[in-house]
UniProtKB/TrEMBL annotation:
Region of interest: Disordered: 259-283
GO MF annotations in UniProt: phosphatidylinositol-3,5-bisphosphate phosphatase activity; phosphatidylinositol-3-phosphate phosphatase activity
Top-rank taxon, per record: Eukaryota
GO cellular component annotations of the record: cytoplasm
All copies of domain Myotubularin phosphatase, residue ranges: 131-283
Protein name per its UniProtKB record: Myotubularin phosphatase domain-containing protein
BP term (GO), one: phosphatidylinositol dephosphorylation
Organism: Brugia pahangi (Filarial nematode worm)
SUPFAM superfamilies in the record: (Phosphotyrosine protein) phosphatases II, PH domain-like
Coiled coil: none
Spans traversing the lipid bilayer: none
Any Pfam family hit: Myotub-related
PROSITE patterns, per database record: PPASE_MYOTUBULARIN
Amino acid sequence: MSETCCLKCGMQVNKVQLIDRLGSEPNIVGSIHVTTSHIIFKAEDSAKEIWVPNGLIGTVEKGVLSVLGTPLTVKCKHFLTLTFLITRDKECQDLVDTLNKCGKPVNITDVFAFENKERNDDIRLNAEKRGWDRFDWAVEFARQGIGTADDRKWKITDFNMGYKYCDTYPECLCVPSATTTQTLIGSCKFRSRARLPVLTYFHRPNAASISRLVHFPCAQPLTGFSARCVEDEMLMDAIAKTNPSSSTLYLIDTRPKGPKGTRGYPGFPGPIGLDGPKGVANE
């Protein structure tokens, strides 16, 4: 006889048979566990386990009650189909309702991501927490070597504090130490949504860096591809000078090629900055 017991985040049904749909193997007796993130089948007499994320549950179909029990078929979005045989019809119906609720939540707050809770020590601090506070840009840049291995050629600035200039960039930015606030403001005004070139990755061994700059349609110049901006070119030149082992700064245009082999989408010109500052090459 099967048993049902409620868990904190779902339900559990014991003495369930997993039916081999091809009929070549005997049915496997086990238990079904439904949690906030997965539906799990655990066999009783073996280590066999089947884990299916709730988000992959497609349809749940309840069959006709027979002498052996009620069949339950779970069809998943990644083409996996599981068929169970449950002794009691009431338990089968409860499981159908639970799986439908997990697979198709009515409220977004019912999904697993919202089950995450603050740690006990955070609760005791009684401080307001934001998810982004768990990631500290200053610590990350220090890990990469900014302030030590970079020979002080880069600096961390609060230029974008409160997302004053660019609402799609972090508040903490890393820019060349030689740049001024006016240079950064000028570059922001020149580029779409104020997405100026800033440090993304610093490579310790040779002081090479990757700066976020050209990625359609993120940081294209507002005034067209033939326009020039003194502040923007000064910032690019400063980035080029941060690497003493190379005198060339490569601008890589990652937009797909158009019908005629040019970069970008139909109606957009080719690579940016063909007449850019000295020491800047385009790829």
